[in-house]
Specification:
Elements lengths: L1 H22 L4 E3 L3 E3 L5 E3 L5 E8 L4 E8 L7 E4 L6 E2 L3 E4 L5 E4 L5 E5 L8 E4 L5 E4 L5 E4 L7 E2 L3 E3 L4 E7 L3 E11 L5 E4 L9 E2 L8 E4 L5 E4 L4 E3 L11 E7 L5 E7 L6 E5 L15 E5 L6 E4 L3 E3 L9 E3 L14 E7 L10 E5 L4 H9 L6 E5 L2 E5 L6 E4 L6 E7 L8 H4 L6 H25 L2 H12 L4 E3 L2 E3 L2 H7 L6 E5 L2 E10 L2 E10 L7 H12 L9 E7 L2 E7 L6 H6 L7 H21 L14 E3 L5 E3 L4 H4 L31 H16 L20 H11 L10 H4 L2 H14 L10 H9 L17
Parallel strand pairs: 26-34, 37-41
Antiparallel strand pairs: 1-11, 2-8, 3-4, 4-5, 5-6, 5-7, 8-9, 9-10, 11-12, 12-13, 14-23, 15-20, 16-17, 17-18, 18-19, 20-21, 21-22, 23-24, 24-25, 26-27, 28-29, 30-35, 31-33, 32-33, 32-35, 36-37, 38-39, 39-40, 40-42, 41-42, 43-44
């Protein structure tokens, strides 16, 4: 019996084992496997803690291909491949038979998540650490989701030099790329910034040195490490560690936070954050907005006094003045007041601070900004008054601003007289009759005066200069100058800085009391066939733009058929001179920064302005450099202000020869893709350090046909000899992988078919390394080595 029992137990154990082997599906995803949006199917990790598939957003109407925690009710998303392009039901993700991972939308558009350009994948795997990986036939890693994070990192994941996290737009409502970025910089600092404003950073770690990484280890601790030392971020977490899920996320208000979630239930609990006051993040509430956070948890956006929301449904987009006023107008002091907001502050900013006045109280600070017509606000901290110029950013009222004061100039609202008082029924008397007669006489006198002014040009000029135009502003710190003011500022227009296709530019200095401001004045030399109202409307659009990589338009003049535009002065000239006319060529890192800055500026014009602006003439001559060599795009509004045939050169096409998109030859409607093409040509010039065409090149200088730069880059890529393009520059060769990526982005941009060119949003992402750069369409039909 014992023998029989033993045999039965062995057979039962074997059956259980066989059943277990049969019931367990292989975690490997084989070639040809796919998932369809709306099917609820997913690829699970062996522990089933994580899932890869389509995540429902916007009430289930659209889907993101991504990874999420699958066992908790929240199903928290940690990575996505298409955060800015949600897919419809019926879209698919497939690991193709040739080893590519692709997302196919219902309209047939294909997004390459992994192109297999280097090595084809043989299988995929959703791992238990939340990393989705692709491996080759030798099980070597060829691609991983950890290599291109979105807003979250997980234990066992690191953020290496140059890698970034981008916040979502609206938490768990809108997962598209938001306004904030966490970057592990090459100097060893971990930096949070409002990157759309080209912000240098509002929080950073006290670390420096090469080859540093942000590490999130398996024990749930985050630290910054290199070969020599460790800088800890996380201080303590609940134990035992394995009983919790862990994640670290940059939220939609720009704070980097670490959370834990018990595997048996509950909610996500924060265990660490980069800073306590959420209003520390720059531009949380946009331009002229004020961030309020009394509890250091919630964030509320309001407008500063005297301003109203740009979008009443979303105050965080920023605000604009209710009444626009020029404080430099004579006798303007009685038309505004200075409001004091208690326990509030405009943080110190070298780009926004005009000057500091020491040892003053509230009244002294008020007087300081009232005496300075270029100052719109101030912060009073202790006894230091920091005067601020426009635009006003980052106003905050929170726990960290107790005892501080924000002072803001606010125009006084004027109301119309109560006409009803004149129409009340009163007993007739001679005095009332005389009063009414006086009113009628005054009205008639006013009308006669207006007629006299209308038919008297000298009177027109006097009235415009004295009362209206000199002080009339139509945008954010945007004013109308008189011709006499600009003539005096430029000393009779005697110092020309240069000439463009639309007119000459002159240097000038505006003098007001003890303040001098350098300006550049552009005289448009062609007739403007638009009405004054049309011209002013388009100037308002241009005047409200604000970005670090755009030259700031300060004002304009329309007088005696003359049209002049007044810009901030850029002391280091044009990018063209800097790149091509210097004895010593600029460094590689500086050129990379300039290219990224210009890309971000164009992205702002195309996608982030309230009204889209297409430049139509992107070239190095239209990029200017300030005193810090920050690259700024100029003349970005001329395509709106001028008539269609006024931005043409001797090529009889809009734009400049060599930078012109080929679709203009076919006379098709202009889109943002014309700027993308021009940027692509200029990007190749910047990274290669030479003009796109050089007719004076001597044949003996090179064995290659390198007369036309884009063609030469293409031929070098095809032959596998791209390093020849920069063989003269050891600094570039030492960073060749980045050069190669940027060159490929340039080739994407100059595709003859505008449909195949990327948007500037994708261009920025590819340049920053957050989006993989596939082989450019120009090379698809070539035998690329």
């Amino acid at each position: 019996m014992d023998v029989v029992r033993t045999l039965l137990l062995c057979v039962l154990a074997l059956l259980v084992n066989l059943y277990g082997l049969h019931g367990q599906t292989s975690p490997n995803i084989s070639l040809g496997s796919s998932i369809t949006a709306g099917s609820n199917a997913s690829w699970l990790s062996p522990s089933a803690d994580y899932a890869f598939g389509f995540y429902r957003v916007f009430g289930g109407r659209l889907y993101l291909a991504g990874i999420w925690f699958d066992k908790i009710p929240a199903k928290t998303l940690v990575w996505t491949a298409n955060r800015d392009s949600p897919a419809e039901a019926g879209s698919t993700v497939q690991l193709t038979d040739d080893g590519h991972l692709i997302l196919t939308y219902t309209n047939g558009t294909v997004q390459q998540i992994y192109s297999g350009a280097t090595v084809a994948a043989s299988f995929g795997l959703m791992q238990d650490d939340g990393n989705f990986v692709l491996r080759d036939t030798n099980s070597a890693l060829v691609w991983q989701s950890f290599g291109s994070p979105t807003d979250t990192i997980l234990p066992e994941q690191a953020l290496a030099n140059g890698q970034t996290l981008y916040s979502n737009s609206k938490g768990t409502i809108d997962y598209s790329t938001g306004d904030f970025r966490l970057e592990m910089q090459s100097d060893g600092k971990l930096v949070l910034s409002a990157y759309r404003f080209a912000d240098p950073g509002y929080w950073l770690t006290d670390t420096q040195g090469e080859n540093r990484s942000l590490v999130f280890n398996h024990s749930g601790f985050m630290y910054i490490v290199n070969s020599s030392n460790v800088y800890s971020l996380t201080e303590n977490i609940p134990t035992p560690v394995e009983d919790y899920y862990h994640r670290a996320t940059i939220n939609d208000h720009g704070t980097f936070e670490q959370f834990v979630h018990h595997k048996n239930g509950g909610n996500w609990t924060r265990v660490w954050r980069s800073f306590d006051d959420p209003c520390i993040a720059n531009s949380v509430c946009g331009i002229y907005g004020m961030c309020t956070s009394p509890d250091n948890e919630t964030v509320t956006c309001n407008c500063i006094p005297g301003h109203t929301p740009l979008d009443p449904d979303n105050v965080s987009k920023g605000c604009h003045p209710e009444t626009v006023m020029n404080y430099c107008l004579e006798n303007s002091g009685g038309n505004y007041t200075v409001e004091v907001v208690e326990d509030a502050d405009f943080p110190s900013d070298l780009t926004a601070d005009l000057a500091r006045v020491e040892h003053v109280d509230v009244e002294g600070c008020k007087k300081a900004i009232m005496d300075d017509c270029y100052s719109l606000a101030a912060s009073l901290v202790d006894s230091t008054c920091r005067k601020k110029r426009t635009p006003l950013l980052n106003a905050r009222k929170s726990a960290s601003t107790k005892g501080m004061k924000a002072l803001i100039k606010v125009p006084i609202k004027t109301s119309n007289p109560d006409i009803r008082k004149l129409t009340r029924k009163k007993k007739f008397n001679s005095r009332a009759f005389l009063e009414i007669g006086s009113i009628i006489s005054a009205i008639l006198a006013f009308l006669l005066g207006v007629a006299a002014i209308y038919y008297n040009p000298a009177a027109q000029r006097f009235i415009k200069r004295k009362y209206f135009l000199t002080g009339n502003t139509i945008g954010i710190n945007f004013r109308e100058f008189t011709f006499q003011e600009l003539q005096e500022a430029t000393n009779g227009f005697n110092k020309a800085l240069g000439r463009g296709s639309s007119g000459k530019v002159y240097k000038g200095i505006l003098v007001l009391k003890d303040t001098q401001i350098e300006i550049a004045v552009k005289k448009l030399e062609k007739d403007i066939e638009k009405s004054r109202e049309e011209f002013m409307t388009e100037l308002k659009i241009i005047g409200r733009t604000h970005h670090k990589n755009l030259v700031r338009l300060l004002g304009f003049c329309i007088e005696n058929n003359q049209h002049l535009l007044v810009y901030e002065f850029m002391s280091n000239g044009t990018l063209s001179d800097f790149l091509f006319n210097k004895v010593e060529s600029p460094g590689w890192v500086q050129r990379v920064d300039m290219a990224l800055g210009m890309a971000r500026g164009l992205l702002y014009l195309h996608d982030e302005c309230h009204t889209q602006i297409i430049h139509c003439d992107i070239k190095p001559e239209n990029v200017l450099l300030d005193r810090n060599y920050t690259a700024k795009i100029s003349d970005f509004g001329l395509s709106k202000l001028l008539n269609k045939d006024q931005t043409r050169t001797n090529t009889n096409l809009r734009g400049t020869a060599g930078y012109i998109a080929p679709e203009w030859l076919r006379n098709v409607p202009v889109t943002t893709k014309v700027d993308v093409y021009s940027f692509g040509v200029m990007l190749l010039e910047i990274i290669c350090g030479r003009r796109h065409i050089e007719l004076n090149r001597v044949e003996e200088e090179s064995e290659e046909d390198d007369l036309f730069l884009p063609d030469w880059v293409v031929s070098c890529v095809i032959s596998g000899k791209l390093e020849m393009v920069v063989s003269h520059d050891p600094e570039v060769l030492s960073d060749f992988e980045r050069f190669e990526r940027m060159a490929m982005v340039g080739l994407w941009c100059i595709n003859p078919d505008p449909i195949l060119r990327p948007s500037m949003n994708k261009v920025v992402q590819m340049l920053e390394g957050t989006l993989e750069v596939e082989i450019a369409p120009l090379l698809h039909d070539q035998n690329v080595k």
